[in-house]
Amino acid sequence: MTRRSRRDLLAGAGTALAATLAGCGGVGESLLGDDDTVSYDQAALAEVAERSPPTRPDPFPLSIPPEAMDRHRSRIRTLLGGVPESPEFPNEALSAELAEQRSHVADRFSELNSGEGSSRESRDEYSLRPSTDRERLARLRSVRAEAAGLDAAYRAAIGAIDPESPRSRRESVRSAMYDFLASWRYEGASPLEALLVHDFIETLIAAVQRSLRRGQDLPEAPRSDVFRVSDVAASVESAEAALADAMALREAYRDSLSEPTAYRPRIEAAAEQLVREFEITSSRADVHDYLDLNEPPFTRSIDGTPAEELYRAALNLVDDDFIRGRGLERQPAKWSLQAAAGLAGIETFRTVIDGIQAGEYGVPDSATEIASAYDDAVDALRMVWSGAPRGIRIELDWPATDVFDYRMREFREEVTEDGGEVPTRLINDVYGGLKHTFHYATYVPPVADHLAGVLQEP
């Protein structure tokens, strides 16, 4: 397929969905047959596997305040400073474990401060996503929680832990979180920008809530169970750190606005409308006819073919649980985005079912087909990233980019580490994953346009 024909197909898919977002009916019988094992040009496969991934832009419209980073660094230094590099206790195993943990935390902190581990090239895994300031902030919170756990374990071991401290700190964080929730108006410069910023703040608040749910009191004898003390302290520290980031980001964003407007009611209304549309569209696409089955309902087996990977990946996006996960209704920005992703997922599912019925997605005949599927997927992703509303498009692309990253990472590891013939099973998974990326990405632009239109409604 040429670059022009790929772009024509991308545009055609978007036009069709934009014209009838919630249209189309059921699907029919499968025509797919079994495929034989194929040998591939290993050098050609390696060429695809070793390509550098395209760089996904960061859609977040707000810069992370430097003081938020500095606050975590200062706290980590204080916590590490309270624990000797080589603790000495009668229990040598305890001494060794605490020393090893301190070294681990200190090394992680040093790497973050030096910039190591911050770029995509330093990551262990293949990824479209370069590291962002939001991720660096998250890593600092993680190191801070580990440092707090280490500090608490050491203080428990020397008998200097306050048994009431974790409980009182946890209640203080909980109270501050409720105050935050009560005053949270989802202010922004526009509904779209507010959606993006407050979606991330929702992620932080969800992290606070998870940490508080894990909360427990210290053991009756802290000195004899120092690592349980560590877990308790780390969970409280994690909640406190995430809440501080949520507060700092909301304040920084509000301060950057000349005329801040509260958009929470509009975002909540958008979420409810998009969820209704997902349910209606799901019903018209006969999605539940597939969800209720234990096996794919095709006349010939798709086991061991790219169609199986495609079918499973597409099916994951159309379950009602996808948009009715725990707590989503209390996170209107995230709920809006999830429901919109679900709409693109339904269209992807329809396309996949139609293709399977037409006998498509068999085992590729050559490495050339895999290279072509890779080019199609990358073209589709770049089209998503290049258009407007850009931030919303990028936030909706994760069902495509997650599969792309996972399958290409697996492919690269197999080709570069083993150096032998790539199993047909992996070829099928990679080819199916690339096709999934292409199909889902084609539906992101019209769905993003639709979400933007819903948000603009008074």
Automatic annotation (TrEMBL):
According to the UniProt entry, which residue ranges have a biased composition of type Basic and acidic residues? Answer: 118-131
Protein's recorded name? DUF885 domain-containing protein
Annotated region Disordered: the residues are 47-70, 107-131
| Ranges of compositional bias, category Pro residues | 54-64
The signal peptide here is none
Organism field: Halobellus clavatus
Known PROSITE patterns for this protein? PROKAR_LIPOPROTEIN, TAT
